[in-house]
Amino acid sequence: MNTQEIRHNFERIAQKVFEASGEYDAEVMLNYENSALTRFANNVIHQNLAVENNSLRIRLQKGKRDGTVNVNLFADEDEILEAVEKAKQIIQHSADSDEVLPMLGPQKYEEINRFCPKTAELSPQERANMVAEAVARCEEKNLSAAGIVENSANVLGIANSKGLFAFWNGTNFTFSITVFGENGTGWAESLGWSIDRTDVPSDIAEAIDIALKNQNPRDISPGKYTVVLTPAAVGDFVSFMALYGFNARAHLEGRSFLAGKVGQKVFDEKITIVDDAYHEAYAGLPFDFEGVPRQRVVLVENGVLKNLVADRWTAEKMGIEPTGHGLPKPNHWGAIPTNIVISPGETSLEDMIKSVKRGLLITHFHYTNVSELTRLTITGMTRDGVFMIENGEIAYPVKNLRFTQPTTDTFNKVLAVGDKPKLVAGFFFGGAYTPAMLVEDFNFSSTTEFGG
């Protein structure tokens, strides 16, 4: 199904819902994904799949009550009418909620064209060719490869009976590879809204290089080290920071580790962070799940916490403007920035390494999570290549370590910021367009038996 057909069906169902809603205000939200995935391991493709998912969320509202029922994009008229009646019944048996706000009227959105037909139409054969290149290059070095190649096309649509209409489509591509040697691994990953914004051959070469250097890793003692964090390693911290640091509702409820600190210096002055859906690295969704236009928000400027992101309910409570970062209703979490951009510095990764007398180079992290909120302490493990740096040179690989590190320490002890940002994914959610960072006193709390 092409985008025009999807839009036509969406508009058709929305109109049916509006006609059947009577005295109720009505909203219809479409989430559509057409994705394909090739998975490989042990130098062999072992899974190919294609998935077409869609959900149409019908929400009726009357006063301070609302009711929601899901159907799909291919629903017939009887199914639509049945869903509308179910939503009315839910409202009749619901209690008032002050989080149910009047629906918005028409809005103006900035046009963003981040739909790449080449990415959306990537064939199984083309994905297999990428895997074949990775396998051939690994076999030359007696190595084994595993990973994924994934492409998708996505649509989000919102329409309501007050005249609001928002419609967006975009694409995404991911290539991720882990290379296995006899007793050490390497890893690399690229993602972007267009396959042309990624470099699969470079990813393959990088993962192979790391794997070859990461053989026979040595034991070292846990403790505090100066570390060179690649963009992927920085990205895990940024994901949790976005969730708990810049969410206005988390501040309102005292859940944020930065609560009460707007206008104060919270990080090193080298750190500037914005949320920018219009940045060229991102697929560019120009509105949120409430239909509010997304704003470019300066979150941290030269280490000072400047602004937060807010949905409509939180903005009303705090006396500020909503920023276009709301989630689907009901939403008791708040607003989340999902297009984080960290300003680059002037130091190359090579120069960071040269500046370290004794420290560690981290490829990326694994199984990260929050262990404590007041300083947003993150715990997790290293993975796929940790290297001892001695006198400005990579000396030897070391075995994986578990870290327990407050975000407040990480971003207040930045010695240098890299000059080449990269779009990276967070381990559980989100991600960032971020450069590498050189950080001192990074705490590794224990060794681990985790291999790789």
Structural notes for this entry:
- By secondary structure, this protein is of the alpha+beta class.
- It has two domains: 198 residues, PmbA/TldD fold, CATH 3.30.2290.10; 236 residues, no CATH class.
- 24% of the residues lie in helices and 37% in strands.
- It has a six-stranded antiparallel sheet with strand order 3-2-1-4-5-6.
- The two termini are 42 Å apart.
- The model has no long low-confidence stretch (mean pLDDT 96).
Give me a quick take on this structure:
The protein has 452 residues and is an alpha+beta fold. Helices cover 24% and strands 37% of the residues.
Report the sheet-strand fraction. 35-45%
Separation of the first and last Cα atoms = 42 Å
Average of the residue pLDDT scores: 96
**How many domains make up the 3D coordinates?**
2
Structural class: alpha+beta
The percent of residues in helical segments reads 10-25%
Order of helices and strands: HEEEHHHEEEHEHHEEEHEHEEEEHEEEE
Q: How many DSSP-defined strands?
A: 19
Q: Helix count, per DSSP?
A: 10
Q: What kind of sheet is the major sheet?
A: 6 strands, antiparallel
| Unreliable parts | none
- The coarse overall form would be globular
Question: Strands of the largest sheet, in order across it?
Answer: 3-2-1-4-5-6
Our Rg estimate from Cα atoms comes to: 24 Å
Search tags:
single chain; 452 residues; alpha+beta; PmbA/TldD fold; six-stranded antiparallel β-sheet; five-stranded mixed beta barrel; 24% helix; 37% strand
Secondary structure elements and pairings:
Elements: H1 3-21, E1 25-41, E2 44-62, E3 65-71, H2 77-92, H3 117-120, H4 124-140, E4 144-160, E5 165-180, E6 185-192, H5 200-213, E7 223-229, H6 231-245, H7 248-252, E8 273-275, E9 297-301, E10 304-305, H8 312-318, E11 340-342, H9 349-354, E12 358-372, E13 377-390, E14 393-398, E15 401-406, H10 407-410, E16 414-417, E17 422-425, E18 431-434, E19 437-447
Parallel strand pairs: 7-12
Antiparallel strand pairs: 1-2, 1-4, 2-3, 4-5, 5-6, 7-19, 8-9, 8-11, 9-10, 12-13, 13-14, 13-15, 15-19, 16-19, 17-18
